[in-house]
Amino acid sequence: MVRVKSKILLKRKVFMLRSKRTIIILTILIIIAASFVVYRNCISEEGIFDNVLNGRSYNIYEIQKPISFTAFIEPDWIPENENEVIELNKEIGKAGRVEIILENVMHRGNDIYFSFNAKPFISFHDGEFLYHYEFNEDGAATSYFLADAYNVYDKNSNKIDVGQKGFGPISKFSFGIEIKNYDAIKEGFTLEFNGGILYRYTHKLR
Length: 206
Prior knowledge:
The chain is 27% helix and 43% strand. It has 206 residues and is an alpha+beta fold. Mean pLDDT is 86; it is low at 33-42.
């Protein structure tokens, strides 16, 4: 009888130890998951920027409208063959603390297409970013595109027509030059850009 009771007590102890271990493991997993959510939403650059754009915990101020920069597009950056893509990711300008990046250039057959991104300056307390929308008092956003945002000139300062234009998502922008104008740009050209809005944000608790 004593042996039976001892076995029962032993089984209970083992069960309790296993239960405690399970609870500890689950608690650790919950803490890790919660920490990841906090990091993702409040600390990571993606989380901070998402909170800024959605009006969570941040105030947004307009700094410059539109921004302007001038850059020379090198001949080596312009693809010669159809479907050729030149990956660059080169900084070609700056607006405040925002870096203007030429991401890539693509020969699409009918045109040469240039894709840019404005890399935001992000920190938890404050930062700056380029956006192609105006923030309204009611919380909505209105697109902001200028017809003359892109001005392109060849090496002799002759103006070249710009074809397709693109804005977005968020800080990206792009334009194309028709293939009939390839000879005018193959030795490089000057880009004058006037567009987008430079914003600053600050945390509401700062």
